[in-house]
Design brief:
Length: about 270
C-alpha cells in the first residue's frame, strides 16, 4: 500500500502538466472553431443570400419607413448585421456599405460602417491569433520567423497598404496579421484608418442609389417591387476611383521604403 502511495505523487505532476497543455491548446482553437461552425450554418441556411441588391430594391420603401420611424434601432441593427457579416466572412461588404449609404446617408453610414467593419475584423483577428497564430509560432522555421519579424516591424504601413489597395480579400487581410503576431492596437488602428476611403466612397454611391432606382422604375414600371431593376453597381466603380485607392495604398509604403534606404546608407 505504501509503494502505491509513493508512486502516484511522482507521476502526477507530469500527467497534470500534459493535461493542462492539451487543455490549453484545445481552448485556443475554440474561438476560431465557433466562427467556422457559425459560418457553415450561415452558408447552409443561406443567410448571406439576403444581402443582395435585389432585396434592397424590393424592400427599400419598407426599410426607409423603418429608418424614419426607428432611426437609432435601425442604425444599431445595421451595425450588428455588418459586424457579424464581416466576422463570418460573408461576401458583400461593399453592398452593405452601399445599402447603409442608401438608408442613412453617406456620412452616418460611413461612420457606422467604419466602426462595424473594424469590430467584425477585430473579432476574426483575435480568434485567428489565438489558434492559427499560436500554432504557427510554435512551429515556425527561420524563414517564417524572419518574415513575421519584418511584417511586425512595418506593420502599420503594410496593413494600410493591404486595406487601401482593392485587390486583397477583406477576410484574408483580417487573418494574415494574426499569423504574424501584429499587436492588437496596431491592427485596430490601421484597419480603422485603412477602410475610411473605400467606406465613404461606397456609402456615397449608396446615397445616390434612390435616384438610379427611380430612373429604372420610370423606364420599366414595376421593376422595383419585383427587385428586377437593372442597377449596375460596377458602373460606379470607375477606373479613376480604383486608381485613387492604389495611389493611397502605395503611398502608405513610403515609410517602409525610406526606412530601408536609411538602413542601406548606414551600412555602406
Amino acid at each position: 500500500m505504501k509503494d502505491n502511495g509513493q508512486d502516484e505523487p511522482a507521476g502526477a505532476p507530469a500527467d497534470s502538466s500534459a493535461e493542462n497543455t492539451r487543455a490549453g491548446e484545445f481552448r485556443r482553437w475554440i474561438p476560431i472553431g465557433l466562427l467556422v461552425a457559425i459560418m457553415g450554418v450561415g452558408y447552409a441556411q443561406g443567410w448571406h443570400e439576403h444581402l443582395s441588391l435585389a432585396n434592397l430594391i424590393r424592400e427599400r420603401q419598407h426599410l426607409a419607413a423603418f429608418v424614419d420611424t426607428y432611426l437609432l434601432l435601425a442604425l444599431a441593427a445595421y451595425v450588428v448585421i455588418y459586424a457579424v457579416s464581416v466576422a463570418l466572412s460573408f461576401p458583400g461588404a461593399s453592398f452593405l456599405t452601399i445599402a447603409g449609404g442608401f438608408l442613412f446617408g453617406w456620412l452616418v453610414a460611413g461612420l457606422a460602417t467604419i466602426f462595424a467593419a473594424t469590430l467584425g475584423a477585430t473579432v476574426v483577428f483575435l480568434a485567428a491569433r489565438s489558434s492559427l497564430g499560436s500554432a504557427l509560432k510554435a512551429r515556425a522555421g527561420p524563414f517564417l520567423a524572419r518574415l513575421s519579424s519584418g511584417f511586425r516591424e512595418n506593420a502599420m504601413s503594410y496593413l494600410l497598404f493591404l486595406r487601401l489597395t482593392p485587390i486583397f480579400p477583406f477576410w484574408l487581410v483580417n487573418i494574415a496579421p494574426a499569423i504574424f503576431h501584429v499587436p492588437v492596437g496596431t491592427y485596430v488602428f490601421s484597419t480603422l484608418v485603412g477602410i475610411i476611403p473605400g467606406t465613404f466612397a461606397f456609402a456615397f454611391i449608396g446615397s445616390g442609389l434612390d435616384s438610379v432606382i427611380a430612373a429604372q422604375e420610370a423606364a420599366n414600371p414595376g421593376c422595383a417591387a419585383a427587385g428586377s431593376c437593372q442597377v449596375d453597381i460596377g458602373a460606379f466603380v470607375t477606373p479613376e476611383l480604383l486608381a485613387a485607392f492604389f495611389v493611397l495604398g502605395f503611398a502608405s509604403l513610403i515609410p517602409v521604403v525610406l526606412k530601408r534606404l536609411r538602413k542601406k546608407r548606414a551600412s555602406e
